[in-house]
Design goal:
By secondary structure, chain A is of the alpha/beta class. Chain A has 19 helices and 19 strands. In chain B, strand 2 and strand 3 form a beta hairpin. Classes of the chains: A alpha/beta, B alpha+beta. The complex binds iron/sulfur cluster.
Chain lengths: ~600, ~210
């Protein structure tokens, strides 16, 4: 027992000591600190960090450590003892590393980036950091629009990191040990040699207020690893001795998603589908379970039930799991392929479906390829098997949405109730949850030109659902408008919002991804002080307009997104990439041909 | 049934009792030890731990019983797959309810000046004052204190009750630090466990099942 354990809750999260921690004592020329701007419990399940952590530590003379955002009690402890924020493994101050990388999985973590840098005693603005400070690097899905954070990072890595990152670190090691390379020289070097690296300081942009006039003169390419069977894949993971979110072995089956739902950014920025072979996936599962001792396994991907090798994999996994007391988790089962898969060995008592929109018309607009027939067939089967709890997820504020679509949500829920009456085998009453989120039109989706919904509009729709669900004994929940609005600003903003974000942090914003911590007031004040017009940022854009993120090339052409937008407005659907190639542009780079990527299409 | 003695030092000392239970489960699974699982909806390994210690107390003497038919020497196999700070140091084949049997623990307390004041705690009717659920409580704890020795000015060894009717060493130490105005950080290490006067290791060895 020490003063630390008296004043700080769960101090383990700041010191690590997890099983499977790589050797931290080997000689190192390059030290990388991988950060997640969220708590330990959340950050520990970040798959990208997991991969790069083991990748870096596998390189000769390179050590990679980790750091997460501390809660207020530990922040207080550090300040009282005049300690800087340190890495978990060797308790080295972040400022002493060569690189401090942030994996940014969601925009709402930006305020915590400032928080961690300041606790580490590192100036937040890139231009205020001389050669004595580490490179501050951003990666993860948010970097498809890095502009809101442009002045705080030395460089951004866009896309999947396995192959280029290894080379970048090797290059740096060589240049550091042989000629003690200067920071700016290295930045110019990576800018020139790596198309997936964006150095904002080398590429100015021009803004008129919050409207971009001239985007950076560069092309930042989203790196796409061609082959999941040969890509660097850690066959192990850290096992913390305290509970974390997703506290289990997690195997990534494939990247990308074939469905092309128009609202879903992940469906575009992770294209194309690249699958592991079932044998490769099974080996991975087995190695993960054996090296961690975990008794629970998740199969992870954007749409697991679309995995073409699922049956082959499960045929091997079920007996293995049974023999080794392992519980299998099969998340994100799509409604239309749920049938037949139904959860052998899956003890979930509640079914979760995401029709996303209440009418077929709107589902066609967003290209959610699910019909009511699918929904009710599946549910009938589930109810017959004794399921008695259903969660339905929808979005409000979708493009072209009218009150009729919202009434469709309620009517769908009522018909689920009626179906339960007819087909139930369980003695329990039906528990039916309807949950809505507010749609955020994100960059690199066909809806990137659409406006984020008005507060009054969405409030009226929420109220309607609240009242009608209450009458019918359906539990209804919705998410906070302000936090969605903020996410929309962070996702769609350009360089013009950067100052306000830091100001909001100074005013107290942090842990914004946590509902109980988020307070829009910090941002409202900051936007006011900076004269930011968020209406301009979240409002509708003209198809011909330049967008702040247009210099990033995710491989899917802007023309394709525009065509998809036009098709959406006509309610025309686009089939899954598993049925045919829809010409999104990636084939041009050799993807979705027989050699790599989606081998299902030739 | 096998009984293991293990340590809980370094960052493992920051692991709560419940989390430690999971950590030991994973160690046994990684080592490939065939442990019996409970029946029922949520099967778990049949493990029994010695009484919990407070978060932050380092320990050289934790015990866990494992229901298994294995009889071979496993400590090396377990240590090869244990996280930092957890080290298995002894193994017996015995059937003992550890939590109910082990009832005393010896601790080393370190804090500036503690050695000079420790011996008062063995005086008859000794009471301490501490906070419990926001209220100040004064309690006679003399029946829970079995020994107290000065090691040097800044260190002491005490033997206290654990399990039911225990006395938390941190509670005692913080009381003394407050009473005598001792400042600075402190540290507690659990050195050994006992069944009454008998060292736990000896007790378990005496109850070994032969095969
Ligand atoms: S290239 Fe064709 S098959 Fe591949 S992701 Fe694009 S549309 Fe789908």
């Amino acid at each position: 027992m020490t003063k630390l354990t008296d004043s700080v809750a769960k101090p383990y999260r700041y010191f690590g000591g997890e099983y499977n921690t790589p050797d931290m004592t080997k000689p190192a020329d390059v030290r990388f600190c991988m950060c997640v701007a969220d708590s330990y419990e959340v950050g520990m399940s970040n798959l990208g960090v997991r991969i790069l952590y083991y990748l870096f530590n596998s390189i000769d003379k390179v050590i990679c450590e980790r750091c997460y955002a501390p809660f207020a009690d530990y922040e207080q402890y550090l300040k009282e003892h005049c300690l800087p924020l340190c890495s978990l493994e060797t308790q080295t101050p972040l400022s002493e590393f060569d690189f401090v990388g942030f994996s940014m999985g969601y925009e709402m973590c930006y305020s915590n980036v400032f928080y961690m840098l300041e606790l580490a005693g590192i100036p937040v603005c890139a231009e205020d950091r001389d050669d004595s400070y580490p490179f501050i690097v951003g990666g993860g899905p948010c970097t498809v629009n890095p502009e809101p954070m442009y002045k705080y990072f030395d460089f951004f890595f866009i896309g999947e990191g396995e192959t280029p990152w290894k080379q970048i670190i090797e290059d740096y090691k060589l240049q550091k040990t042989q000629c003690n390379v200067k920071k700016n020289d290295f930045l110019r070097y990576v800018d020139k040699h790596y198309d997936c690296i964006y150095v904002p300081g080398l590429h100015p942009a021009v803004y008129d207020g919050d409207r971009v006039v001239k985007i950076p003169e560069t092309r930042a390419w989203r790196n796409i690893e061609p082959d999941m069977n040969t890509v660097f894949t850690p066959q192990t993971q850290l096992v913390p001795s305290m509970e974390i979110v997703h506290d289990r072995a997690v195997a990534e089956l494939f990247r990308g998603c074939a469905n092309g739902c128009r609202f879903c950014q992940a469906g575009f920025i992770y294209r194309p589908v690249r699958e592991r072979s079932p044998d490769n996936a099974f080996e991975l599962c087995k190695n993960l379970l054996e090296s961690t001792g975990y008794d629970e396994l998740s199969l992870n991907s954007l749409s697991t039930s679309d995995y073409s090798g699922l049956q082959a994999l499960l045929d091997k996994l079920y007996p293995y799991a049974e023999a080794h007391h392992v519980q299998l988790n099969l998340p994100s089962l799509r409604l239309d392929s749920f049938k037949g898969q139904m959860a052998k060995g899956n003890r979930k008592s509640s079914l979760t479906f995401a029709p996303e929109a209440g009418t077929q018309r709107l589902r066609d607009v967003i290209n959610k390829n699910i019909t009511e027939e699918n929904i009710f067939d599946t549910l009938a089967e589930a109810f017959q098997q004794g399921y008695s709890s259903v969660k339905l997820y929808f979005m409000l504020g979708l493009p072209t949405e009218t009150m009729e679509d919202v009434e469709g949500i309620y009517s769908l829920a009522c018909r689920v109730k009626a179906l339960y009456k007819k087909t139930r085998t369980s003695a329990k009453p039906l528990r039916l949850y309807v949950s809505t989120s507010t749609f955020i039109p994100k960059p690199f989706t066909p809806f990137q030109w659409c406006a984020f919904v008005d507060r009054d509009d969405v409030t009226a729709k929420q109220k309607y659902l609240m009242d009608s669900c209450k009458k019918s004994g359906i539990e209804f929940s919705y998410n906070d408008y302000d936090s969605s609005l903020m996410e929309a600003v962070l996702a769609r903003g350009g360089r013009s919002v950067a100052d306000a974000l830091y100001l909001a942090y100074k005013d107290g914003a942090r842990f914004d991804a946590w509902g109980e911590h988020f307070d829009f007031e910090h941002y409202r004040k900051a936007f006011e002080a900076c004269g930011t017009d968020i209406g301009q940022i979240v409002g509708a854009k003209d198809l011909r307009e330049v967008l702040p993120w247009d210099f990033v090339d995710i491989g899917v052409s802007k023309t394709y997104l525009e065509n998809e937008y036009n098709k959406a407005m006509c309610g025309t659907t686009t089939p899954s990439c598993n049925k045919r190639c829809n010409g999104c542009g990636l084939a041009k780079y050799g993807y979705c041909k027989d050699s790599h990527g989606n081998t299902k299409i030739n | 049934m096998l009984i293991f003695k293990f340590t809980k030092t370094q960052s493992a000392a920051l692991v709560s009792h419940v989390d430690n239970l999971r950590a030991v489960t994973y160690i046994l699974r990684r080592a490939g030890v065939e442990v019996d699982y409970s029946q029922g909806f949520n099967p778990h390994m049949e493990l029994g731990f010695s009484a919990p210690i407070a978060l932050g107390v380092e320990s050289l003497a934790e015990y866990v019983s494992v229901k298994t038919s294995e009889t071979s020497e496993l400590t090396e196999r377990l240590n090869a797959v244990s996280p930092a700070g957890v080290s298995f140091v002894a193994q017996w084949n015995a059937n003992i309810n550890l939590a109910a049997t082990i009832n005393r623990a010896q601790y080393k307390l370190s804090a500036t000046g503690i050695g000079s004041v420790i011996e008062e705690i063995t005086s008859p009717g000794y009471s301490i004052t501490y906070e419990e659920r926001g209220k100040e409580v004064t309690k006679d704890v003399s029946s829970r204190i079995f020994a107290a020795n000065r090691v040097d000015d800044d260190a002491a060894q005490v033997t206290l009750a654990i399990g039911n009717d225990n006395l938390r060493p941190d509670r005692l130490l913080l009381y003394l630090m407050k009473k005598y105005g001792l400042v600075g950080d402190y540290r507690i290490i659990k050195l050994a466990a006992f069944v009454d006067d008998v060292p736990a290791d000896e007790f378990i060895a005496a109850h070994c099942v032969l095969h």
